[in-house]
Amino acid sequence: MRHETMRWIMVAALVGAVGCEGRDGGGNTEPEQGNVACSDGLDNDQDGQIDCDDPSCSGARSACPGLGMGPGGGPGGGAGGGPGGPSGNETGNELCSDGLDNDGDGFTDCADRHCTYNPAVTVCEDAPGERTNDTCSNGVDDDGNGFVDCDDFSCSQNPWVSVCPGENTDALCRDGLDNDGNGFADCDDFGCSRNALVSACAEGEAGFCLDDVDNDGDGMTDCDDPDCDVAAACGGGPGPQTDGGVRPPIGDIPPLTGEFHETGDERCSNGVDDDGDGRIDCDDRHCTYNPNVTVCPGARENSDALCSDGVNQDGNDFTDCDDFSCSQNPWVTVC
Q1: pLDDT tens track for 9-35
Q2: End-to-end CA distance of the chain
Q3: Which end of the chain is more exposed for a tag (fewer CB within 10 A), N or C?
């Protein structure tokens, strides 16, 4: 009887061990999506790809600078793109090795896909990716990420690659055609609207600020939407790009009502309520939330990089997308 009891105890222990292995070893099939799952060092969906190496992490609310919700600048920010560049595009060997975030998208030099995807940029050749017509058509997984040639986003969503059918350039994203045959044309196709290297779907670029439609579903239309700050029709000036992809509401940032917008260092330090929203200069969140504005003192979380680094930059006890300056900021795309 004692031996029988011991046998059942051993069986139970073995079953328990297998159960634990199933949960911790190979049974965790949580989706690899969102800031937490995409920055925890785990292969949450057990597909062999971890964090930003997993294409699942290139979508909305991701901590990764994937093309899915990548920032703007360079050829342009798509629907989900970030603010326009403060001084130019992150292109060419000089701009891709100067230590500066030239296009204001939160990514510097070879961390910016405007550099790594451009075959003319040679200073980033060691960066992972398949970025030429040759490497995107040789049948080899050159960067070892589990995706070969046109199945790899660095090929299919790269405007410098022409061997992959798709919608990945401004021209293809404006022609009214479903170029890749996936049932979605132009800005309805994520290859356009969520492609950091496409500007055709940016609100100020595609006429979305004049169509009397709330394109991003945030409750504000055309020039009443801060996303239209970049549009000449709404006064122009640097600002967030896109009303082409769904964004969270921007909370208590008042709609723009004045002739000019409270954007840029000059207008954020002139003592004037330029946009007529009742808030002046650095008391206006169109200034403090804008990563291109440098005249407002204090540490802030107001860019894709600062809103996905796991650090409470402004010391208000809220980190990254838990902070309203990230989650309710139209210049931030990772939340």
Answers
A1: 444 444 343 333 332 333 445 555 555
A2: 61
A3: N
